[in-house]
Amino acid sequence: MRTITFDIPPQEVLTKDSVTVSVDGVVYYRVQNATLAVANITNADAATRLLAQTTLRNVLGTKNLAEILSDREEIAHSMQSTLDDATDDWGIKVERVEIKDVKLPLQLQRAMAAEAEASREARAKVIAAEGEMNASRALKEASLVISESPSALQLRYLQTLNTIAAEKNSTIIFPLPLEMMQSLMKR
Fold it and tell me: What is the CA radius of gyration of the chain?
């Protein structure tokens, strides 16, 4: 006999952690024993469809949202074995079950997006803070080196002025130490 497929229509399911999701799927089955399919049930196809819908709701009701989103293959396998066991008396062999789509409520999607954005921003702030900390350590080390030699400070100052002059053609205010100004004023 050939394989028959049908879509499980979207089922509204309340998960173990009280989140409402809409889930649909596909079932692949074949009639293994036509005599049993006719003798033991009125309409094997319709019964298999209804059983697939209730099995989907029952299996997903025992899972939390994270499990539904991450363990689709395990859920599909569980559904397949449950459906196959239940339809054996009807002469039907369930070959495969696939979970097609899990639709989250729009509010939950927005909340998850906001949480992910907040998490990214928090990581960015931590990285920026680490960068600031490393920069301050480097400046501290540089200040220790410069403090050992007063001429090193003057050279660094002149180097900074040179860099500023090279980047922008603008007026540079050259501050003079107060000690020099006082000595000039006394004369």
Answer: 37
pTM: 0.61
CA-CA-CA-CA torsion sign (116, 122, 125, 127): negative
* Chain segment 8-42, per-residue pLDDT in tens: 999 999 999 888 999 999 999 999 998 998 899 99
CA angle 47, 85, 88 (to 5 degrees): 65
Residues ≥6 apart with Cβ < 8 Å to 84: 93, 94
Q: Which residue has the tokens 């949480």?
A: 115
Amino acid occupying residue 77: H
Instruction: Give the up-direction half-sphere exposure of residue 16: CA atoms within 13 A in the CB hemisphere.
Output: 10
Count CA atoms closer than 13 A to 84's CA, side-chain side. 15
